[in-house]
Specification:
Blueprint (H helix, E strand, L loop, with lengths): L1 E2 H14 L1 E5 L15 E5 L10 E6 L2 E10 L3 E5 L7 E4 L3 E10 L2 E4 L3 H12 L1 H21 L2 H9 L2
């Protein structure tokens, strides 16, 4: 997530230069993008986004970089790769679209075949990932109620 102060500069840069490069913040796009490590390359959107595009959009006083999972008559449906929540976003709230990213020093374009396969596989596995996250959350709640959550976390850190 990007704060209000940053977004003003983001919009200015996109308007002025037509593209923007910045280091990611937040964990909602993991495992594809890692916080404070990866750089994203965005351009001002020129066409309507398509399913699987990643875009920067305005949410109240912050900006969010998430993936399009659906296109409706007057809005997009977005979800982060590492989240379960779907957001309905009007077309006008989108300020940039991902054209590529730099991960561990390697440039990846969204047109690369490997990236395209990753996106389709990752999105297809969403129901399995959701089930895993829910089971993990329920297990943590049960462990908390039983008073063994701190011990489990300690064991996890040593693995």
């Amino acid at each position: 997530m990007v704060t209000e102060a940053m977004h003003t500069a983001f919009e200015e840069i996109l308007r002025r230069d037509g593209h923007l490069v910045y280091k990611t913040r937040g964990v909602s796009m993991e495992p594809m993008l890692h916080e404070n490590r990866d750089l994203v390359i965005l351009q001002a959107p020129s066409l309507r986004l398509k399913k699987y595009d990643v875009a920067l959009y305005k949410r109240e006083n912050a900006y969010v970089l998430h993936r399009v999972i659906g296109v409706e008559k007057e809005r997009y449906l977005f979800r982060g790769d590492n989240t379960c929540t779907v957001e309905q976003v009007p077309f006008g709230a989108v300020i940039g679209v991902l054209t590529g990213f730099q991960r561990k020093g390697k440039q990846v374009a969204v047109t690369d075949g490997g990236y395209q396969h990753y996106v389709r596989l990752w999105c297809a596995l969403y129901p399995v990932r959701t089930l895993y996250m829910r089971c993990r959350r329920l297990a943590a709640q049960a462990a908390r109620r039983l008073g063994i959550l701190p011990a489990l976390r300690k064991v996890q850190r040593h693995e």
